[in-house]
């Protein structure tokens, strides 16, 4: 199976796009960190470390302290694909993160985004 090139992309290279998306839509950029920490279990310090070290998305999720047990409640379409139907576990985690950031950008309530 061919590996998707996004897997070797650094988290640090996509993170500014997430923040910019939130800001462009008038949302608080710290909410981006909040949803990423919720999904991955990283602390803010750990998140800043993986950005500074430019770890790949594959490493980012491999080293994540704990994927949130409610991550499977993230559903819907991102990039034209239903996230709950993605077969590759790593791609699904990346798309979960995309979906959460998208919801921040759309101004959804944080309780809804964090599936609480």
Automatic annotation (TrEMBL):
- InterPro entries referenced in this protein's UniProt entry, alphabetically: SP1917_dom_sf, UCP033199
Q: Do you know which Gene3D superfamilies this protein is assigned to?
A: uncharacterized protein sp1917 domain (1.10.8.290)
Going by the entry's taxonomy, the superkingdom of the source organism is recorded as Bacteria
By its UniProt entry, which Pfam families does this protein fall under?
A: DUF2200
Protein name from the UniProt record: DUF2200 domain-containing protein
Species this chain originates from: Agreia pratensis
